[in-house]
User: Which sequence fits this backbone?
């Protein structure tokens, strides 16, 4: 209902017209007063779109109401017009309206300023109050609008980062595996045709998996309102296949295996996947060891290799940054660097919720 009303601002314009008529018509005592009231009511309806001209014209009609015959000023229309000027006019124009209204009020209350200074000052400054109120309401609305826009922009940036992480993990892992098996096949063709054939088949299967995951990613992107969480189709249960696919790697699982929350489950898989990918890219031929430890209240993930340690090669920083961000998003911490005994080590600790 509120959204329906917000989408029809003319309803607010009509409401202001009704307020002016309800406030002024009961006190109408002459044709002049009636005409001024009707004119002011019509002008108020235009105040949202043309605040400064409207407040000027209503001010003129207000002054006409102070002239004989009779004394009947459209006070409610004047207050509303001043409010609309503060609410919808640019800041400089609103300030000019406030100063102008105060100057006119001071002219009309000259005697009071002399005989009763406090009353005179109050009457002089009174017209600035509706302008200030309108400006304050407008400022709050503008800040709220900017806040919504910034929140939407942050959501878009976060979604892009999440998609970028998925693209990096899917493409980097599968391409590195395909490259590994293609290289093995090339070396085996002259000496062992059957093993070369198996390596080619494995590379083909890996490429097919990459295409499947890419199609799934594109489907998620084409689906309105679906988050990148829809990509989280892999988890700790897929680690044995991942490690086996990676070749020279071993998996060790300790502790009582429990069902992990979906974000943690997905993060664990992607951390191991990225760490193994980095080993193949930056320490080709090194043996990797994956350790998954289910501990009370947390899970530990460790991937180490016996390569040459941190080399700072291109692409390593992006992978580590992605892993660190993943771990941070699920409330954990990640450490990565050269291991004391040689090689490279990635270690992540992720808290788990208390069982219910």
Assistant:
């Amino acid at each position: 209902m509120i959204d329906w009303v917000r989408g029809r601002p003319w309803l607010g314009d009509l409401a202001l017209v009704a307020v002016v008529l309800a406030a002024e018509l009961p006190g109408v005592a002459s044709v002049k007063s009636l005409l001024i009231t009707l004119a002011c009511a019509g002008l108020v309806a235009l105040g949202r779109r043309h605040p400064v001209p409207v407040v000027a014209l209503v001010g003129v009609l207000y002054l006409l109401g102070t002239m004989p015959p009779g004394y009947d000023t459209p006070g409610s229309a004047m207050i509303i017009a001043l409010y609309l000027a503060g609410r919808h006019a640019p800041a400089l124009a609103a300030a000019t309206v406030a100063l102008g209204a105060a100057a006119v009020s001071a002219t009309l209350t000259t005697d009071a300023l002399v005989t009763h200074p406090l009353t005179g000052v109050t009457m002089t400054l009174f017209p600035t109050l509706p302008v200030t109120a309108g400006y304050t309401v407008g400022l709050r609305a503008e800040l709220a609008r900017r806040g919504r826009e910034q929140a939407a922009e942050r959501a878009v940036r976060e979604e892009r980062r999440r998609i970028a992480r998925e693209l990096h993990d899917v493409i980097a892992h599968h391409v590195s595996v395909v490259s590994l098996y293609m290289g093995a096949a090339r070396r085996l063709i002259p000496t062992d045709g059957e093993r070369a054939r198996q390596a080619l088949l494995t590379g083909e299967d890996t490429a097919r998996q990459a295409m499947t995951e890419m199609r799934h990613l594109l489907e998620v992107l084409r689906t309105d309102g679906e988050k990148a969480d829809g990509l989280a189709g892999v988890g700790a249960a897929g680690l044995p296949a991942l490690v086996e696919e990676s070749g020279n790697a071993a998996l060790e699982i300790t502790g009582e295996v429990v069902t992990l929350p979906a974000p943690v489950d997905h993060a664990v898989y992607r951390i191991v996947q990225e760490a193994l990918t980095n080993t193949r890219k930056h320490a080709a031929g090194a043996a990797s060891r994956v350790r998954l430890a289910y501990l009370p209240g947390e899970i530990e993930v460790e991937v180490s290799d016996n390569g040459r340690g941190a080399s700072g090669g291109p692409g390593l920083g992006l992978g580590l940054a992605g892993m660190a961000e993943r771990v941070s998003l699920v409330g954990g911490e990640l450490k990565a660097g050269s291991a004391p005994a040689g090689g490279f080590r990635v270690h992540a600790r992720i808290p788990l919720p208390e069982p219910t």
The chain has two domains: 2-145, 235-356. The chain has a mean pLDDT of 83. DSSP finds 13 helices and five strands in the chain. The two ends are 39 Å apart (CA to CA).
